Amino acid sequence: MNLNHNVKASVVILNWNGKRLLEQFLPIVIKHTQSDISKVIVSDNGSTDDSVRFMKENYPEIQLVTLDKNYGFAEGYNKTLQQVNSEYVVLLNSDVETTEGWLQNLITYMDNHPEVAAVQPKILSYKEKYKFEYAGASGGFIDRYGYPFCRGRILDKVENDKGQYDNEIPVFWATGACLCIRLKDYFEMGGLDGSFFAHMEEIDLCWRLNARGRKVMCIPSSIVYHVGGASLSKDNPKKMYLNFRNNLLMLYKNLPNRSLPGIFLVRFVFDVLAYFHLIFKGEFKNAYAIIEAYRDFFNLFNSYKQKRIDNLKKTTQKSIATQYKRSILLKFYTGKKLFSSIIWK
């Protein structure tokens, strides 16, 4: 089944047991999205609540994809987007509140910049609308050792939005909470890595885009509000596990041979320090999640060798300008806690 013939953009919401979120946010998304050139698709990722029945009874006009089980964020989108036929797709979390003109601003920019593969809007907190949102803020970056941060959020320091990051800039990654990407680029890159299940998969995808000469941008004239943590809270040990394991997989898959050993050595030292920091705080389950992440990373190591080889063969860029070449952890713990305080050169 092919979805959405003759539309420019498909906004795809991947739902898992999120009936409450659909009730709250879907009407707003539809109001700001449905038009002659853009449509909303809801893909149900094997929910066990009443999400499917709710959609069929209340939104029969909205295209509904039903997957047979929970494939996770990454593979759930891969399977859904195989059925989509539009120039652009937007991966939109079910806990996002859109605003007037949010989609048109993204599409207009991409129409005018064919060298750009993916964009994200400015993402603010739904609960504190004057603040940036943790997961995406005003564009994502990573440091030399793979630690992600945002324009507007470094580690746990989230800035207030005062218009200080309202310029359009290239970024290393666009958040999966609201990621607009050309469908052609999505499939040419191989889509999201299904082995990740959830977390870090959009950073991995954007790394591949950047490494092959395609651009990723933040367009702050487009604004959405994100609740965050709807599936897994920030302090959930499973979230800790997925973030650490997937980050290691991402580094192994994307780092060039010349820098891989040194970066992994430093990264291991940082992660050991993180482990003991969590132990000191009494967060034993989160600390153990780091051990589990390393264990499963090494279990997957051999199966990822071919992925790494295939990926690096397609890399055309020796260096990515939007990757911070130093340690964001060292900057943060020496007092540089605002994005504007980082010196890139």
From TrEMBL:
The keyword Transferase applies. Signal peptide: none annotated. InterPro entries: Glyco_trans_2-like, Nucleotide-diphossugar_trans. Keywords: Glycosyltransferase, Transferase. The keyword Glycosyltransferase applies. Residues 10-132 form the Glycosyltransferase 2-like domain. Coiled coil: none annotated. GO terms for molecular function: glycosyltransferase activity. Belongs to the glycosyltransferase 2 family. PANTHER family: GALACTOFURANOSYLTRANSFERASE GLFT2, RHAMNOSYLTRANSFERASE WBBL. This is Glycosyltransferase.
